[in-house]
Every structure is written in C-alpha cells, then in structure tokens.
Amino acid sequence: MSRLWGRVAGLFRSKSFIGADMTGNKYFSRMEQIDVKEKRWVVFRREEDPTSIPVEWICWLNGQRKRAPTPEEMAELDARRERVRLNVALLKKEEEEKKAKEGTGRKITSIGKAEGPELTSFVRHFPADSKGDKAEEASKEADQSRVKEHESEIVTAEPKTTEPSGSGSSFRPGTWQPPS
Fold first, then answer.
1. Which residues pair with 30 in a beta bridge?
2. Under DSSP, is residue 114 helix (H, G, I), strand (E, B) or coil?
3. CA–CA distance, 19 with 73 (Å, rounded to integer)
4. How far is CA 169 from CA 4, 149, 164, 176, in A?
5. Which listed residue, 28, 47, 99, 173, has the most CB atoms within 10 A of its CB?
C-alpha cells in the first residue's frame, strides 16, 4: 500500500515540465525512484487525440530520443514538411500536363488492374443456356476427341487395380485411375 501511495504522491511532487507543441499539448517527465527510469507522458490540451502529437514528440515519449525536440527544431521540420508537400503538388501538376500533351491516342487503362484469365475451358463445364447450344456441341466434340486419345493410350492387357503397379518402363502418365 505504501508503494502505491508513493507513486501517487510522486505524480504531484517530482514532475517536471519539458515542453509544449504547436497544438498546446504539454509534455512532462519524472524519475521513478523505484524503477530508476524516467517516465514520460503528455497532457492533452483538448480531447485525448493521439494523432495530434507530432512525430518528434512521439519519439521522445517512447524513449527513442534522449532530448525533447526544441521549438527551433520543430519550426525547421515543419518548414521542411511544407516544402515537401509543395514539391509533391508541383510534380503531380507536371505529370498531369505531360499526360495531357501525350494526347488521347493511347488506350488508357486503369492502374493496377490486369486483364482477366481466359475462361473458355472453365465455362465449358457449365450447362449452356438455350442460346448456347452450338458451344455445348463443340464442347462435347472436344471431350469425345480427348476420350478417344486417352483410350488409345490405355493398355487393355493390364487389369485395373487399386494401387499403381508396374516398372518404370511401362509407366504412362494419366493411365491409372483410382477405383470409383
């Protein structure tokens, strides 16, 4: 109980103000006497919105930085972010102008989408509707020719067994069928 009371009392006694960010969030730290480790935390100005904390302060809170970011450093980084944002906008504008100059003679396709697979052999397995009788007949003819090809390959002298048998010289792929 005294350990808990010591922690609660320590919150009010030994906290030190480290800094504040542009949104008004305040950052504090204190040394834990029990753990001998610096504890860091933020007090939000408005509602608790972790997305309002700048990256540099997040790094300090997580212990990735030993020193807290200075206001000068924050101003420099904000200016750099603004320059990058403007450069990105400029590059997008140049890219759009370049595409417009190339003209519309090219076929425009959506980025990230490829043509679909060839599905004719897949569709053949489904029953055709009343309009697709010709496709069904062609499919049946193709199936029959395939069956004739396989029948000529099958050796009729060997009895069908439940397990494949024979030596390597008599092996023919696709001739063995499991019992049905």
1. 39
2. coil
3. 13
4. 82, 21, 13, 15
5. 28
Of the candidates 176, 180, 173, 150, the one whose C-alpha atom is nearest the C-alpha of residue 163 is: 176
For the stretch 62-106, pLDDT in tens is 999 899 999 999 999 999 999 999 999 999 999 999 999 887 555
Joined tokens for residue 23: 């949104």
The dihedral built from the CA positions of residue 85, 90, 94 and 96, taken in this order, carries a sign that is positive
In this prediction, residues 27-51 reach a mean pLDDT of 84
Residue 178 vs residues 103, 158, 162, 164, 175: alpha-carbon distances, Å: 61, 14, 6, 9, 10
| pLDDT tens-digit series, residues 134-159 | 556 666 776 776 666 655 555 555 55
pLDDT by residue (tens digit) across 100-117?
988 755 555 556 666 777
Q: With the CA atoms of 130, 132, 136 and 141 taken in that order, what torsion angle do they form, in degrees rounded to the nearest 10?
A: 130
Residue 123: C-alpha distances to residues 128, 131, 140 (Å)? 9, 14, 13
Give yes or no for a contact between 68 and 40, defined as CB atoms under 8 angstroms apart: no
Dihedrals phi, psi of 77, to nearest 5 degrees? -70, -35
